[in-house]
Amino acid sequence: MTDVTVAPTADVDPRATIGAGTRIWHLAQIREGATLGGNCTVGRGAYVGPGVSIGDNVKLQNHALVYEPARLADGVFVGPAAVLTNDEYPRAVTPDGRLKSGDDWTAVGVTVGEGAAIGARAVCVAPVTVGRWALVAAGAVVTTDVPDFALVVGVPARRVGWVGRAGRPLTRKGDGVWVCPETGATYTETGGALAEG
């Protein structure tokens, strides 16, 4: 791990792969087999589970919890205390009362597309996919897949609009065309999906 900053109180398993320029702050834990790309920031108390795959330029804010087998693409933002779960039917014990072990369940992951953002204290309930450049509002609970560029809010999360690459809500121009108020980029809505251009 060259050109990597790891706080003395962080716990990084030697079997994890950490890309150049990545910074891991106080009390963060990176488990065995996890892969983090280059120039990532892992905030205080964040957790990255075994075998999790994280792309380049990803930010995990303080106390974000990313459980295996999550997959995060390049440029993803996970806000403070957000949780990406991994158990569809959580129980501590089996039906006969025996403490569950790793062999008693199958982990399912959350997939987050390029540039997407998960707001503070949001929960993504696996297995779901959050699309490219989508925005999950703070405190939302995602229980179904989120389309590319969608803005979702609430419990359970529902789409209330579209956002562009800048993260700003898009303005409807008419005839299925949407415009980013910050960049001027245009997007086209067809059949409940949004595409650039």
How would you sum up this structure, described in words?
The chain is mostly beta strands and 197 residues long. It has one domain: Hexapeptide repeat proteins (UDP N-Acetylglucosamine Acyltransferase, domain 1, 3 Solenoid). Helices cover 0% and strands 33% of the residues. It contains no helices and 26 strands. Strands 1-4-7-10-13-16-19-21-22 form a nine-stranded mixed beta sheet, with no helix packed on it. A seven-stranded parallel beta sheet has the order 2-5-8-11-14-17-20, with no helix packed on it. A six-stranded parallel beta sheet has the order 3-6-9-12-15-18, with no helix packed on it. Strand 21 (150-153) and strand 22 (158-162) form a beta hairpin. Pfam families: Hexapep (PF00132), Hexapep_2 (PF14602). It comes from Actinoplanes siamensis. GO terms for molecular function: nucleotidyltransferase activity.
Task: Fill in the keyword field for this structure.
mainly beta, nucleotidyltransferase activity, transferase, nucleotidyltransferase, Trimer_LpxA-like_sf, 197 residues, nine-stranded mixed beta sheet
In short:
The protein has a single domain (about 5-165), classed as Hexapeptide repeat proteins (UDP N-Acetylglucosamine Acyltransferase, domain 1), CATH 2.160.10.10.
